[in-house]
Structure formats: C-alpha cells, structure tokens
Target: Band 7 domain-containing protein
Amino acid sequence: MGCVEFAATLGSVILLIITLPFSLFWCFKVVQEYERAVIFRLGRLRKGGARGPGIFFVLPCLDSYCKVDLRTVSFDVPPQEALTKDSVTVTVDAVVYYRIQDPLNAVVKVTNYRTSTGISNSTRLLAMTTLRNILGTRNLAEILSDREAISHAMQASLDVATDPWGVKVERVEIKDVSLPQQLQRAMAAEAEASREARAKVIAAEGEMKASRALKEASDVINESPAALQLRYLQTLNNISAEKNSTIIFPVPIDLISYFIEIKKAHSQANSSNSHSQII
Model:
C-alpha cells in the first residue's frame, strides 16, 4: 500500500468514525443469494474474492463495487445466413443459455459482460460467429436432421472460448432453419414423388398378398363344397344386416342345374314332335 492510498484509507476511516452512526447506512451493503459483489478500492481489486451472499463492508469514498448475477440467462442469436458445405444458403437462429461462473473474471477480463438487458455482448457476438462457422462445415441434410449435434458442437466451442471470461455456456438450442423458397419447392416435390412411389409399392404388395389369400381360399372351398354354402349364408347375413331397399339373392349354379337339364330335354322333345308332324 502506497503512502497516498494509506492516507486516503486513514481519512476515510476517520470520516466514518466522525459521522457514526449515519455512515453505517453507506458502509454496509447486502447482496442476495444469487448475487456476488466485486469490490474495488481506489481502482484495485480487493483481496478475498467476490463478497456475498449476505452483508459486506465498504469504505465510503474509496470503495466501489459491482454486483454480478449468477443466475442462468438466455439470449436469442439473430438469424444467421450461412453457406453450407454443399453450397446451399440457409438461415439459422438459435438460443444460448449461460451463467456467470467466475464473477471476478466476468468483471475484470471482459468489457460489458452483461448489458442492461441481461445479454452479454461478447458472448452474443461470439455465438453469432460460431454458428456461422459450424454451419459452413455441415451439409444441408445434416443441418435438417441432426440439429442436436450442431447444438452440442456450438455449446462446446462457446464454452471453451468464454471460460477465460468467467462465463459458463450451459446449453445451445437451434430454433429454426429457413431454406430458400425454390429449394423448399424442390424438396417438397421430391418428397411427394417419394411418397407416391412408396404408396404404389405398398399397394402392389397388398394386391399380391390379397391374390395369394384368394387363391388359398378358393383351394379350401374347392376341397369342401359345404364351405361354399357357409360363405353364401354368411354373405346373405351381412347383406340383411344393412338397410337396403333391394336385396339380390345369388343362386348357386348347382341348385338350378337340375332344372336346366329338364328344360333342355323338354325343348329337344318339342323339336322332335314338330319334325315328325312336318314329315
């Protein structure tokens, strides 16, 4: 401690004693459980680290302090337009969750560690740059299908870069990926064509399975004529259960074949009689 600093400290203590007890209102400060106080005396960082939570003591006219909030805060990374590895322009925005891990470094080693809106300028600018760099190393398919990997890579990169500032990046989430309109239409057409092709394949497989089932059913019915009668009765039951104004009863050929033969014989007999009469 220099002579000037010693004299200023001594004068501040004397002033404190003279103005007791009113000076106590300016000497004792309180920080909450989620806060820490970084104290400077004549521009120098006081020993002992950050104070809090609770009550701490400052000398009037000599000490100044800065409160640091240790709670997790988040900020939106503005939409960043970047060129992917396969030369496609995409626009991606994200959200970053971070907290102050070391209050001393956050105050001493970085400017404006937190603005009045709660957003770290340095962390925000670094997040924007990191997001663009990571997008440039990924293909469009990876960006669309594996957002979690991009979030983890961005979180790891930011955490390493902000560690000297006393900032801990806890999480990064990709919010939205925007594609050009032409590319969206092309991808939609490709997806529609793929769905149609898949539907045709599924329909063909269904027809093939249905034909096999019908063949097996016909074989079973051919082996057992009674099964045909049971199926016929079941069909009639299903038809009668519905509210139909007209019901058609199909008659099996086996039941009317006898009458068909009689009609043929009768017709042949009539034709023979007519021929004999003509003679």
